[in-house]
Write a structure and sequence with these properties.
The complex is a heterodimer of chains A (207) and B (98). In chain A, 45% of the residues lie in helices and 12% in strands. With 207 residues, chain A is of the alpha/beta class. Chain A folds into two domains: 12-43, no CATH class; 48-205, Nitrile hydratase alpha /Thiocyanate hydrolase gamma (Nitrile Hydratase, Chain A, Alpha-Beta Complex). The chains are: A alpha/beta (207), B mainly beta (98).
């Protein structure tokens, strides 16, 4: 895989060594301190899909919050105590409805809303997903178990620059009486990327 | 966001993505180059990654747009409905008026 510099993950030991070397150089040249690097890594590792699910479940139950989240995601996240690092890329939330379904990808590398949902899954960084989802998004959805009606518009978002995209999945039917905490359990990492729908209430109540 | 510059395009405008492979890091994938799209959102000005990637200051900042394409305009054999689209963020110096 040496011919493609973007195949992360095939040679973990090599990349670990390379990261260590880059880290040492950054410190040696005074670009940043070792504490800057460690605290940023801690911050990224402190976020997980559960954080995104909590925010999006709140948007499901509070329409005014949802409007604020869609209009200005960063301010709306701050309301719930989530501050994004100053150096993090900007964030936008895209809403899925009965008429439109968004799916996020980064065809150039692995851009992902890490500042709110942590590190991307391995498949998100893989060439198979990155090359297929832009050409055949409905085929990818099928692979993840979802078939959308042709009347639903599929919009793929390729995050190629300064913005990262988080998908607000459609709230499933039959969830009217559920609490925000219960609703958050329906919002999976896959549904926030847009390759799947939120879970149905039945699928979690049996477990 | 870098200091604001005058943006040449507005949401709704039709644009063509420039074709090119500059000898630097660039963030305009080749699959949208030469294709016709529509400005969906104007984000404001951001530092130019082609300069930043090589230790430059990224200036002048470039207006950044979210551009929307019909999937059937990107791929001859697109198998989904004609209403399906693709969105991608493109810096202004990669856009051409049509």
């Amino acid at each position: 895989m040496a011919e493609n510099g973007h195949n992360h993950g095939d040679n973990a030991e090599y990349y670990a060594l390379r990261a260590e070397a880059i880290q040492a150089l950054l410190v040696e040249k005074g670009v940043c301190s070792i504490n800057d690097i460690l605290s940023m890594a801690d911050k990224l590792d402190s976020r997980s899909p559960k954080d995104g699910a909590k925010v999006l479940a709140h948007a499901w139950v509070d329409p005014a919050y949802k409007e604020r989240l869609l209009a200005d995601a960063e301010s709306a996240l701050l309301e719930l105590g989530y501050d994004l690092p100053e150096t993090a890329p900007r964030l936008t939330v895209l809403e899925n409805t009965s008429e439109v379904h968004h799916m996020a990808v980064c065809t150039l590398c692995s851009c992902y809303p890490r500042a709110i949902i942590g590190r991307p899954p391995a498949w998100y960084k893989g060439l198979a997903y990155r090359s297929k989802v832009v050409v055949d998004p409905r085929g990818v959805l099928k692979e993840f178990g979802t078939e959308l009606d042709e009347s639903v518009q599929v919009r793929v978002i390729d995050s190629s620059a300064d913005y990262r995209y988080l998908v607000l999945p459609t709230r499933p039917a039959g969830t009217e009486g559920m609490s925000e905490e219960e609703l958050a359990k329906l919002i999976t990492q896959e549904s926030m990327i847009g390759v799947a729908l939120a879970l149905s209430p039945e699928s979690v109540s049996t477990s | 966001m870098a200091s604001s510059t005058t943006a040449r395009y507005r949401p709704g405008d039709q644009v063509r993505i420039r074709v090119g492979t500059p000898p630097t890091h660039f963030r305009t994938p080749e699959y949208v180059q030469g294709k016709l799209g529509r400005i969906d959102t104007l984000y404001g000005a951001f530092k130019n990654p082609e300069s930043l990637a090589y230790g430059g200051d990224g200036l002048p900042a470039q207006p950044l747009y979210r551009v929307e394409f019909a999937q059937t305009d990107l791929w001859q054999n697109y198998s989904g409905p004609a209403t399906d689209t693709l969105l991608i963020d493109i810096y202004e110096h990669w856009l051409e008026s049509i």
